[in-house]
Amino acid sequence: MSPTVLGGLLGAVFGAGLLLVVRRLPFLRKPTVDDRIGPYLRDLAGADVFLGVTDSGSPFHAMLRMFGPSLRAGAVRLERILGGAASIRRRLARAGIDRSVEEFRIEQVLWGTAGFGGGLLVSLIALSFGAGNPVGLLVFCALLAVLGVLSRDTYLTGQVRKRERRLLAELPTVAELLALSVAAGEGPAAALDRVARSCRGELADELQRVLAETRAGSSLVRALDGLADRTGLVALSRFADGLAVALERGTPLADVLRAQAGDIREASRRELIESGARREVAMMVPVVFLVLPVTIAFAFYPGAVGIRLIAG
After folding, report:
1. Which of 187, 144, 198, 168 is nearest to 270 (CA)?
2. 250-268, pLDDT tens digit by residue?
3. φ, ψ for residue 42 (rounded to 5)?
4. What DSSP state is assigned to residue 164?
5. Which is nearest to 188 in space by CA: 132, 248, 127, 134?
6. What is the three-class DSSP state of 272?
7. Which residues form the Type II secretion system protein GspF domain (predicted)?
8. 218-to-214, 232, 243, 253, 292 alpha-carbon distances in Å
9. Which domains, and CATH codes, for the chain?
10. I need a labelling partner for 300 at 20 to 30 A (CA). Which of 48, 81, 226, 280 fits?
């Protein structure tokens, strides 16, 4: 590494440290309401619990206490830049993640910081070997930071899709179990309680949440409507609406549940057939662009070699 580059890096590190020190001076930092009342609310769950830090004597806890305000400030700035708090709140609910938008933004800040740190490490290694432009490497680090922020959002979307697939896979079995319980003479609430206690999975957890809302004073129909709004799945919304309509109008609940289970299984079968057809089309790509050229090359190469030998 050249002395100029080394001096620039040392100057940048010194300037960043000096800036952090100046920004944390007491007369330049006005305490917020959270800072004033935070010491009196230590028993409440906060960012420490969110990040899984429970040992107050650990070094990581001290680092979290040091950089916690900076993380929250970065989350606020990121929210102002990106926006979409309603969409994130809805996707967090659909993914079954009990976190706030601020906590999700803090995760995005951490992912972006990790991307920037990885890019900075690669840049330092490249500069030590005399390769790369410092400005270009700085842009590379910034791109990795942006990629880290966007990757957390993409990962949340993947979590939503995985949970929706699990809910759809569990729904026919749960509907048939509910039909059996209702046909055996149990009421709707008792059947939901039995199925929620007997099953394990995402849908069983949602049913337990529905029962908790009914025990808290909400009606079963309203709790089922809340289930349909949280999940956002058409099949599960139809299932919850069918239960609500059967409870309101007195429709035979067992027949409704059996019909819905059959419809869901038929929809899953159609989706599987469509997925197989799409994969058949996707398999044509390696066949046409890889296998077929190699086959043609093996077929014509001996002839081409023979013609060349005869002509020579």
Report:
1. 168
2. 667 777 778 877 887 887 7
3. -70, -25
4. H
5. 248
6. helix
7. 176-298
8. 5, 21, 16, 21, 64
9. 165-269 (1.20.81)
10. 280
Residue partners of 286: CB distance under 8 A and separation at least 6: none
Of 156, 177, 167, the closest CA to residue 228 belongs to 167
| pTM (2 d.p.) | 0.69
How many residues does the structure list for the chain? 312
Tally of CB atoms within 10 A around 163: 17
Instruction: Examine the pLDDT at 120 and tell me if it is beyond 60.
Output: yes
Task: Determine the Cα angle at 75 with ends 8 and 38, to 5°.
Answer: 110
Which 3-state string (H, E, C) describes 77-135?
HHHHHHCCHHHHHHHHHHHCCCCCHHHHHHHHHHHHHHHHHHHHHHHHHHHHCCCCCHH
Number of H helices, E strands in the chain: 13, 0
Residue 194's identity, in one-letter code, is R
CA separation for the pair 145, 110 (Å, rounded): 10
How far apart (Å, rounded) are the C-alpha atoms in residues 83 and 101?
Answer: 10
CB 221 within 8 A of CB 250: no
Token readout for 249 is 């109008």
- Report how far residue 15's alpha carbon sits from residue 23's, in angstroms, rounded to the nearest whole number: 12
